[in-house]
Specification:
The chain is 30% helix and 19% strand. It is α/β, with parallel strands linked by helices. The chain has a domain at 233-334: Alpha-Beta Complex (Flavocytochrome C3, Chain A, domain 1). Strands 1, 2, 8, 9, 10, 11 and 18 form a seven-stranded mixed beta sheet that branches. Helix 2 (63-73) crosses helix 3 and helix 3 (80-99) packs across helix 10. It starts with 6 loop residues before the first strand and ends in a 7-residue tail after the last strand. The model has no long low-confidence stretch (mean pLDDT 94). Bound molecules: succinic acid (SIN). Succinic acid binds at residues 48-50, 246-248, 337, 373-374, 376.
Amino acid sequence: MEPEPMTDVLVLGSGVAGLTAAIHAARRGLRTTILTKAALDASATAWAQGGVAAALEEDTDSPDLHLADTVTAGAHLCDVDAVRVLVTEGPDRIRELIGFGARFDHLGPALATTREGGHSVPRVIHAGGDATGAEIQRALAATARDLGIEVRERWRVTELLVEDGRAAGVAAHDAAGAPRQVRARHTVVATGGAGQCFAVTTNPTVSTGDGIAMALRAGVAVADVEFMQFHPTALHSPATPRVLLSEALRGEGAVLRDDDGVAFMADEHPLGDLAPRDVVARAITRRCVASGRDHMWLDATAIRGFADRFPTIHGLVRDSGLDPAHDFLPVAPAAHYLSGGIVTDLDGAANLPGLWACGEAACSGVHGANRLASNSLLDGLVFGSRIVEAIAAGTDGPRASGVMRGVAGWTDGPVEAPALAGSTRREDFQRVLTRDAGVLRDRERLERAGDTLAAMRAATLEDANLLAVGRALVAAALARCESRGTHTRLDFPDRDPVYDGRFVFGHGPAPRLVPLPAGALT
Ligand code: SIN
């Protein structure tokens, strides 16, 4: 195998987080390479509809208010220092993104904003109505191309290279399927989430938890993976992935109704239909269970000019034979966003020198037990950029800051080998997780899922990655004997202060509960 020349910054993934890191690195004159398993323009980012949350309007909003909303939605498991970084640096990153050419929607001269679940004021900016992610992806990919960043498309990363106790790049298969090594001084994992663990998901087929699974195999600390967020309003249909019906619809007046047409969210939460996402997903699921139905309804008939404000959703819904001006839309929760991932400090450093993580692959602490709507694109912008600032400042290895405070110094080596050479189809374990580790969980179902997944062997590397993340998710969900955020245990319905901490993998075979450091919890 031909060794490759050393690059300074190797970025795995080409969503908002990876592209932001790569652009910042290239602008600082660092030799930068992006490895992506699809095309540069393909990522979960490009699918994001609703928008980006940021306190841009000083008269009505502030970083403190954004922080308070984020921590509340996160069910008080956020790292407050990390959230403070997010909300204070976010507005500058948005302005920078606009400088890169991203075009957001305006209302007169001002940026148009909307509300989504858990936000106390309208602070979600959007592009193309409901095509925010696509516009951000377009602007960042164009900037990366203009900067001449080396991009290797359709390369599949197989393992992290670890040499002398530090990350040294990755082993991969190139576009032709040949084994290769890409060596790097710094490796940035921005490979996104793992929604494909579930049969019912809004995530594209590329969201297979590759970076998180590689970290698990390398013994790098990974936390909070029990907190898979279920988006309450995926269009109920046989489509895989499911069509997302953005929370921005409820921000613009859509209402959830039961089979009798009764609007039920006002009885569930003071914010009604704009309650945090976990509350809404639970309310829908409980009603489905109680009524024996598999969906509830989203009534968007009050939204005037639906097709202009939400052109993407309008097209997708019409393709399903529905007219949002007249029809209630059938909805049910779908796996949407993994709030946990590779543990990082406030600069995005993992607990292996030379390894960094950002975006959905990371656990920076900004999302806690339930990510606030539209904070994810902001997360990618802020922490993608901070990684490069830290590298440029000569940082090499994690500081005891943010979530890393609990795990700095862990060095335990691999915990799981790739479970390849099997024949289990992806649909088989997707069904197990959807049935037994979904919105409403209990010990019996989780144990059944754990036993079933333990016996499964994947046939492909991506499926092995999904299986590794799925097993970790189930193990952490079993260990967390309480309900918090997106993790609802029917057998432990309340929050329990015993679990004011994170289940972290990377030190022994089982997840370990690491208490939150003093001051990290509000
Ligand atoms: C949505 O538009 O509802 C999804 C936005 C997000 O996941 O933050």
